[in-house]
Amino acid sequence: MKRKILFALSILVLIAIAAFVFIEKTKMFNKHAIGDPIDSFNGVIVYYNGSVNNVSGRNLTADNYNLGQQYQCVEFVKRYYYEYYHHKMPDSYGHAKDFFDDNLKDGELNEKRALTQYRNPSQTQPKVGDLVVFGGSISNRYGHVAIISDVREGEIEIIQQNPGKFKKSRINIPISFQDGLWHINNGRILGWLRKNDASHWQHW
């Protein structure tokens, strides 16, 4: 009988701890309103979006280039390439997973995005500024995109917009080099795209 009581008390304590953690996380993230700046990379701002399904209207530039739905993940990566690299994608529409063309070989030009595409794994190492593409999943059929913000020994850091209400704008993902190929060790990552010109900068 005592064991049952102790077991029940242990369960109640665990539930109380979980509830406390959830409440504290909710407080921490609810301090932001939709559209609040929460991070930036090379001067390009990441905005808070709350729920992953939230949309605050389409973001168009002064010259009518489509950056995407505010404040989805696609909107950030396209805005980053537009503001930092002055790069416009020939096809400015599509879901996150659509940024990766599965018909291309490693290192071929993705004409819809005007970026060189590398498959995961690839002969080419990921680098800062690359656009990383995640495939769809049961919980997110549209996929996800992010920017590599740092490359370190054994891992990359990505910066992302709209990762979810309780997730961070930056996360680290392990990388490895095996049999002549670079692997980003996340099963959902299809590959990465890169602006490949001499200066890594394009003016219009």
CATH architecture of the largest domain: Alpha-Beta Complex
What coarse outline follows from CA principal-axis ratios? globular
Number of strands: 12
Strand order of the largest sheet: 5-6-12-7-8-9-10-11
Q: Give the helices and strands as they follow along the chain.
A: HEEEEHEEEEEEEE
Structural topology:
Layout: H1 2-29, E1 37-41, E2 44-47, E3 58-60, E4 66-69, H2 73-84, E5 108-110, E6 115-119, E7 131-134, E8 144-152, E9 155-159, E10 170-178, E11 181-184, E12 189-194
Antiparallel strand pairs: 1-2, 3-4, 5-6, 6-12, 7-8, 7-12, 8-9, 9-10, 10-11
Q: Can you characterise this structure?
A:
The longest helix has 28 residues, at 2-29. The termini are far apart. The chain has helices spanning 2-29, 73-84; strands spanning 37-41, 44-47, 58-60, 66-69, 108-110, 115-119, 131-134, 144-152, 155-159, 170-178, 181-184, 189-194. It folds into 2 domains: 1-31; 37-194, endopeptidase fold (from Nostoc punctiforme) (Alpha-Beta Complex), CATH 3.90.1720. Helix content is 20%, strand content 30%. With 204 residues, the chain is α+β, with helices and mostly antiparallel strands.
Descriptors:
single chain, alpha+beta, 2 domains, 8-stranded antiparallel beta sheet, 2 helices, 12 strands, 30% strand, disordered C terminus
